Amino acid sequence: MSAQMIDWNVAVQTGSRLVRPGPQVSPEEARDVVEDLRRLARVAEGHVRDFTGLEAVGGAAHATVVDRPGWIRANVDGFRVVLEPLIDRMQERRGPLAGGPGGAVIQAVGSRVTGMQVGAILAYMASRVLGQYELFLPPDPSGQSPTGRLTLVAPNIVQVEREFGVDTRDFRLWVCLHEETHRAQFTGVPWLRSYVQDQMTEFLLASDVDPAAMMERLRQIAEAVADVFRGGDEDPDNPRPGLIDAIQSPEQREILDRLTAVMTLVEGHGDYVMDAVGPEVVPSVKEIRSRFQGRRDGGSRLDKAIRRLLGIDLKMKQYAEGSRFVRRTVTEVGMEGFNKVWASPDSLPTHAEIKEPSAWIARVVGTRSLEAAPPPEVSEG
């Protein structure tokens, strides 16, 4: 690329330095946790396949278990895969960084400073994430490695299960069920990964600002997060723009609706499956869900402010809306009917249909409306 906008090495170094240490465990305990998580990820694969009907490509799950700095490194790798080619394309369309006032700003800030800001955000996130299915990994020259990776953050899982006082086996399997569902989605539905990546690419390329100005906006968000960390308070009558607000142009709204709809579907589907596989699989699932929901809803004022700025509250809303959509659809047309959602991009629900499952059922499945269905259960997620 003509100029590096983010010093990714600095981002990793900063994030790894700032991230809080995990809970204290002995080396023997750490080895046991890693072994247990890898085993339970394989157990989860069978339950997800049997319950959802989705067959993950590659057979039994091979989970990568990481610590907090490991999660930061993995996510920086993913960001580079997605962002660097896009920034190159944006610069080709809109000119080099040095052209215009935006370029002067980003050069003054410097890629190292931007890397520090990104690292600070990753340090915050690294202490919260329990697991994820990493869609975007650096390409494997041999072509043998999978396109994605199921990753579990061991210290965060241990910390939460200790805080909740729940059965460790149940909690770990519960987390694995969610992430294994994502693996089944993105490897078992051949077009889904490329569809999400295409929508992300379109979204960023539709920006009405040059790359330097876009990075300046992102830097401002990072500074706002840092200010909250330092004890600054948000004015409730004049909140600062969040991450999505900062980079959205009018042309991007339609794309964002499609991207939000598909991510709401996959997140909600994961949340639905982790609860719905049944108490015979996770006997204490109701207790876990109740305590976990309290964690999602709670937090200090600082925590809530950062969640809003980084768009985490939007993700929590996606879990709830998506899970409700899946639950109501399966109740009405069964899992086989719901699985028509994976037939093609045209079968995906729109943002409006996520809120009104009967509209999606009428359009895609072609059965009676939800008005005839029993009332849905109250959502716990």
Automatic annotation (TrEMBL):
It holds the Pfam family Zincin_2. InterPro entries: CHP03883_F420-assoc, Zinicin_2, Zinicin_2_N. One of its GO terms (molecular function) is hydrolase activity. Transmembrane segments: none annotated. This is Putative hydrolase/coenzyme F420 biosynthesis associated uncharacterized protein. Keywords: Hydrolase. It comes from the Bacteria.
